[in-house]
Design brief:
The complex is a heterodimer of chains A (294) and B (287).
Chain A: E1 5-16, E2 22-32, E3 36-41, H1 47-55, E4 62-71, E5 74-75, H2 81-91, E6 92-95, H3 109-119, H4 125-138, H5 144-149, H6 157-170, E7 175-179, H7 187-204, E8 207-211, H8 215-221, E9 224-229, E10 232-238, H9 239-244, H10 249-257, H11 273-293
Parallel strand pairs in A: 3-8, 3-9, 6-7, 7-8
Antiparallel strand pairs in A: 1-2, 1-4, 4-5, 9-10
Chain B: E1 4-6, E2 12-14, H1 18-35, H2 37-40, H3 78-114, H4 116-130, H5 134-145, H6 149-176, H7 179-186, H8 191-227, H9 239-248, H10 254-282
Antiparallel strand pairs in B: 1-2
Helix pairs in contact in B: 1-3, 1-10, 3-4, 3-6, 3-8, 4-6, 5-6, 6-8, 7-8, 8-9, 8-10, 9-10
Classes of the chains: A alpha/beta (294), B mainly alpha (287).
Chain lengths: 294, 287
């Protein structure tokens, strides 16, 4: 691990345009080069929002109010849009959540993988196709040539997710944002895909921001993690430390709420009301402190 | 209905259905007839013969073999007039249909993909537009700019672009929310590039289906306008004009009314059936 993190987010605040409802509350985050950082939290906590803010694909109704997103030392927020786009395009990639909608249904697989290589990195078509073939082999898809010629509807969900992984790694990005990459798959395929992502990440040495709501997945894939509640990071820790002794009460409750193989029924307990109230109060206090500050 | 079968790979394949054949066939015949009208028609569509008026069509007592579909009250050949009328109908269908399609789809695509203020402007425009009754609007337009082929085409484009704009806007919105659009943007595509390379191919099947529908509508609108004598000059044969003339003498010469009616009916039906058939066949979601 290097000293300076590859991705560094500081004091990132985002809110809804118009109403000004806060969505991200002063998020601080650091992902060292080559390491995997998990981002966990319940639905609506803003996990995906952070990924989208980095990639510059936030919904139009959301605006980044303050904060910096530094990729390899450069603050993305200060770049003009066109430059930001090429920079993000060259350094990062996205493994999306739903493989069924993440490939354009009316285009063949081949160009969907090679587009980025040709457009952003300026490769010639033949070299890009070679690279795509090699990557499809790497994600263990048989008969790459047939797949390059296929349309998405001719392939299964698991195959498509493998293609998306191959496409994400194709341009050798330094950072990959995996937005719940296994949620839309069935359990047996999930496990294979997870192992594949892990292998590919290790082989290519890519840093990864792994968005998920599944702590079990985090323990298998990540080195560090942040727990998010209502757009505020309540705890950031190394994975070993976190699973041994989570510092925040909300994290503890979250961990207690995850199912375990050893005790599949007993461990399924909801986050207690007191904890929810406590963490909500914390967020409210944060908002008030901020208001007093301004 | 198109027949659905499954091939070896388990993919659903649709055979070219009967309706695609029939509608395509009729339109092909019509196109050929329109293109070769001068060769096919035995008489000039405009030459009158007041002594040879209301000759009945073939196989009816008093028929003249050189007038297979008979003559109208002014002694003009119904077949020749049908062929030349088909020409005008097809030109209007093609030009007006395509122009409407391009303008409406472009606006719909922009509104549905970019959202924000372009959507506000275009959507309000559509709302305002649709508050006018279309045919009345067309009649008003022609009354102002004067009759003629260009005016008719212009009128159809002006009254009907909203049909494309509305449908394409909704479709582009749905496609724009898909993950592949986000992926394309992360991969460095510009917004305009994403719209043309990613969204457009996916709304195209809908656009094609609508286009054929629109061509049918263009034929109807042209017929309506010529029926009320607001089409191109009254000399030129049009189906609408023939229907209007035939109506006055339906008790003496039914054929003057019936033949253009049948042509109009078959043409409009064929266009709409062709659209349905093509959509079944080329929609990537159904495919």
């Amino acid at each position: 691990m290097t000293d300076r993190p590859f991705l560094e987010i500081s004091q990132l605040t985002a809110r809804l345009k118009g109403s000004g409802t806060p969505l991200l509350r002063s998020v601080d985050l650091a992902v060292p080069a080559g390491s995997v950082h998990g981002l966990v939290g319940e639905s609506g906590a803003g996990k995906s929002m952070i990924g989208k803010a980095i990639l510059g694909i936030l919904p139009r109704s959301v605006e980044v109010a303050t904060g910096a997103i530094r990729l390899d030392g450069t603050d993305l927020q200060s770049l003009p849009p066109a430059e930001r786009r090429t920079r993000v395009g060259a350094l990062t990639a996205l493994i999306p959540q739903d493989p069924l909608t993440a490939l354009n249904p009316s285009r063949r697989i081949g160009p969907q993988i090679t587009d980025r290589l040709v457009d952003i990195l300026g490769w010639d078509r033949a070299r890009a196709v070679d690279r795509a073939r090699q990557l499809l082999a790497e994600v263990q898809l048989p008969d790459p040539d047939r797949i390059l010629r296929s349309y998405p509807h001719e392939l299964s969900g698991g195959q498509r997710q493998r293609i998306l992984i191959a496409a994400a790694f194709a341009a050798e990005p330094r950072l990959i944002i995996a937005d719940e990459p296994t949620t839309a798959l069935d359990v047996t395929v999930q496990k294979q895909i997870l192992r594949l992502i892990r292998e590919m990440q290790e082989r290519h040495g890519t840093a990864m921001l792994f968005v998920t709501h599944d702590l079990g997945v985090v323990s298998k894939v990540c080195q560090s993690l942040s727990v998010l509640y209502a757009g505020k990071i309540v705890e950031s820790a190394r994975v070993e430390d976190f699973f041994r002794a989570p510092a925040h009460t909300y994290s503890r409750a979250l961990l207690a709420a995850s199912p375990r193989y050893t005790d599949p029924h007993g461990s399924l307990m909801p986050v207690p009301d007191e904890v929810m109230q406590a963490v909500r109060a914390e967020v409210a206090a944060f908002d008030e402190g901020r208001a007093a500050h301004v | 209905m198109a027949e659905v079968t499954t091939d070896a790979r388990g993919l659903v394949k649709r055979r070219l259905g009967l309706r695609l054949w029939l509608s395509g066939g009729w339109l092909l015949v019509l196109t050929l007839a329109a293109v070769f009208a001068p060769l096919l028609s035995p008489h000039d569509p405009l030459s009158q013969d007041l002594l040879g008026g209301r000759i009945p069509p073939m196989f009816f007592p008093g028929a003249d073999p050189t007038y297979p579909l008979g003559t109208d009250s002014l002694g003009r050949d119904v077949l020749a007039r049908l062929l030349y009328g088909g020409r005008i109908a097809l030109i209007v269908a093609l030009v007006a249909g395509l122009a409407t399609c391009v303008i409406g789809s472009a606006l719909g695509l922009i509104a549905g993909y970019f959202r924000g203020w372009p959507d506000m402007v275009i959507s309000r425009l559509i709302d305002i537009w649709m508050a006018f009754p279309p045919v009345l609007f067309a009649i008003l337009l022609i009354a102002v700019i004067g009759p003629g082929l260009t005016s008719i085409i212009l009128a159809i484009v002006v009254i009907d672009w909203t049909r494309f704009a509305r449908v394409v806007r909704a479709e582009a919105m749905a496609q724009g929310a898909m993950d592949y659009v986000a992926s394309a943007q992360v991969a460095g595509r510009t917004r305009a590039g994403t719209m043309l390379a990613e969204i457009l191919p996916n709304v195209l099947p809908t656009v094609v289906a609508l286009l054929t529908l629109e061509m049918g509508i263009a034929v109807i609108v042209e017929a309506i306008l010529s029926f009320v004598n607001l089409s191109i000059s009254t000399d030129d044969p049009t189906w609408g004009g023939m229907i209007s003339e035939g109506r006055t003498s339906v008790y003496q010469a039914w054929w003057v009314l019936v033949f253009p009616l049948v042509c109009l009916f078959l043409t409009v039906l064929s266009f709409s059936q062709l659209g349905e058939g093509l959509k079944d066949r080329f929609d990537p979601v159904l495919r």
